[in-house]
Protein 1
Amino acid sequence: MDDEELKMSSLVNLGIAEELAPQFLNKSWLLNRTPPDSSFYISDNPIVRKNYHPPSPLMGNNGLACPGIQIHMPLSPTITLSFICETLVEPFREHKKTKMAPDASIPLLDAIDSGQPLLIERENVVHLNSLQVAHANRFIFASTDDFSLVNEMLESNPELAKPPQLVVQ
């Protein structure tokens, strides 16, 4: 593309941003911080989604507007921004009001409400890193030389080395 085509392409994408913005604004925003001995991966496809709700029979469950969706994006080796569907956060808020909230939910809600990063467990870092590996097209980047998780995942799931290709008909 020449310079003019690139400018036009960027302007077209602004319309998409306007359409998608409400789907990020209606979620709880959470900063996750790694423990000192851990770091986040980032891939060439860094915005990853996860939903533990079962998919509907006609549609998937990974869309931005799907109930239960979680969207994660590494910002640095130690901070990830998460957008969490309110259907997941609201039960914690209700339990907190009744003083019956699980102990782990209080720091989560405090971090969401204050905007301060939530210190997460190493297992959570591994989970978020595994999402980066599973969604990568070709590259995983890390601030350290520790790619053991990538190697383990590729060994147990060799199909991850060949992500599905978009077929246009």
Protein 2
Amino acid sequence: MILIISAARGGCYDERDFYHCPLRQRLPVIGIPLRSGEADAALDLQPLVDRCYQTGRYWQLSKRALLPPPLPKAEQDWLEKWVA
């Protein structure tokens, strides 16, 4: 499974950066476009997602059964090992 993130600079919506993020890997640091002529700001996504998981009570959901549709067998096995 892959998460795809896109970012576009204001006013340049036809030009985007795409980041492919396999869910089995650490989320990447992505460039957040600022104003024209300015360097992109770096956003490290993994600590943000980790913090949301820890403070948002998502850990309680990990003890419940997954909702349909079920994941493919290989993804389900990986997820169960990761949650444990």
Protein 3
Amino acid sequence: MQCFVKGFRYYSGPSLLNATSEADMLELVREPDNTCNSFAIALHWNDHKIGFIHRKEKNLFSKFLDAGVLEIHTEITYLKPEAETWENVSISIYLLKEMSESLPTHANYLTTPETTRYHSLKNHRGHHLQHQPE
């Protein structure tokens, strides 16, 4: 799954932008006592909360985290400090499982990460940006 970090501007994210890098690993931290959503999953970089994963994805991933059945890795896949804060950072979440058998041929696409193309709507000065990672 790939998404922008939600609530980035409300936490430590903006002050850490210059310290973070693409490919940095993030920690998923369940917040079952969160008053807004009991399925909330916070994103932490070096023990600093930088935001949350997207609301519509929380239910599924919180169940995976609660059950502990899969290894979950999260990394920063896109950084654009000059963009609006809601689109400064995007992440990818990978579900990992050791395979004892090969996947069926029709499912081989699951073994290769997909390269995402990001298009920033505009930066804080109102200029339109377009960014497409290579």
